[in-house]
Amino acid sequence: MTPSDPRTAPEPAVLSGASAPCWVHLVTRDLEDAKRFYGAVLGWTFRPGPLGKDFLMARSDGEPVAGIGAVASAYHVGVAWMPYFSVRDAGVVSGRIRERSGTVAVGPLTVGQGRAVLAADRDGASFGLWEWTGRAATLAPSGNRAHAWLRLRTRDAFDAAIFYGEVLGWESGEPGGCDVAYVKEEVLVRCNGRPLARISSGAVESAPDPQVRPHWQVQFPVADVGTTVLAAERNGGTLMERRAVQHGSEATLRDLDGGLFTVTDVRSPADVDDD
C-alpha cells in the first residue's frame, strides 16, 4: 500500500456550495519530475489533462485529486500549490480582487468548460478562481470530494478573512455558501456546514507576525506521515517541518522544483471538538 492508500487515509471532505474551494493545482516548471515525485510519494497516477500537453490530471484510486501544470515559466508565476475557489462570474470576482488591492496575474481565461483566474491576495498569497460554464453548469457538484484541505498562513488572519469574505461572498447567506467562525485563535471556513479551510496568523487578537510569508498551505491526508516523509526524501524531496498537532501529526515537504505541500493523518481540517 502507498502512504496515501484510500483504504486507510482519512476521509476527505465533500465540496459543495458557492465560493467553496473546489480544486488544487500545482504550478511547476517540469511536468515529468513532478509526475515521478508525486507518483512515488502519494501513490498518484496521471492522465493527460484537457488543457494540452503541459497539463496532467492526478488521480488516487481512480478519482481526480489535483491538477499539475508546467506553466510557471510561461506565465512568470512562482512554483506553488494553490487552491481554486468556485465562483459564478470570474470577471466580477476579478474586479473585486483589484478593488481590494489584490492582484490578478492571469485571466479570466477560457479553459475547457470554464474560465480560470490566477490571482494573489493583498499579502501575496496565490490562489485561483474557477467559473464552470459547461452544460448544466453547477458550482461544485455535491458528489465531488476534496482530497486536500487548506490553511492560509498569513500575517493577519482577521484582515485576510475580510478580504476573502468580500471577494468570494462568504457570509452572504446564499444557500450552500461558505461562512466563517473564530475557533481557537484561527478563522475556520465552513462550506455547506463542512469545515474545509483555516486561516491562521497565530492569535487573532495579537499583532501580525512579520516573519510569516503568506501562502495557502495545501494539506493532503495520508495514512502514515512518517512513511510519506521517507518516500519524499528517497525521491529527492526535503522535509521542511514535522510537528505534532491535536489528533495527529503533519509534515511540510518541498518537492524537486520547490513546491511546498503538507501531509497529515488528521481526519478533518477542524478539530473534532470544534464541530
Structural overview:
By secondary structure, this protein is an alpha+beta fold. Helix content is 17%, strand content 40%. It has five helices and 18 strands. The chain has helices spanning 31-42, 72-75, 90-99, 157-168, 225-234, and strands at residues 13-14, 21-27, 45-48, 55-60, 63-69, 80-86, 103-111, 114-120, 126-132, 145-146, 149-153, 178-183, 186-191, 194-200, 215-221, 238-245, 248-254, 260-264. Helix 1 runs antiparallel to helix 5 and helix 3 packs antiparallel against helix 4 (157-168). The radius of gyration is 17 Å and the shape is globular. Mean pLDDT is 78; it is low at 1-16, 136-146 and 271-275. Residues 23-48 form the Glyoxalase/Bleomycin resistance-like N-terminal domain. Residues 152-264 form the Glyoxalase-like domain. This is VOC family protein.
Bulk shape: globular
- Could you name the ranges where pLDDT drops below 50 across 5 or more consecutive residues? 1-16, 136-146, 271-275
Instruction: Please describe the biggest sheet, giving its number of strands, its sense, and whether it closes into a barrel.
Output: 8 strands, mixed
- Computed Rg: 17 Å
Query: Which percent bin holds the helix content?
Result: 10-25%
Question: How many beta strands in the DSSP annotation?
Answer: 18
Q: Strand order across the biggest sheet?
A: 3-4-5-2-6-9-8-7
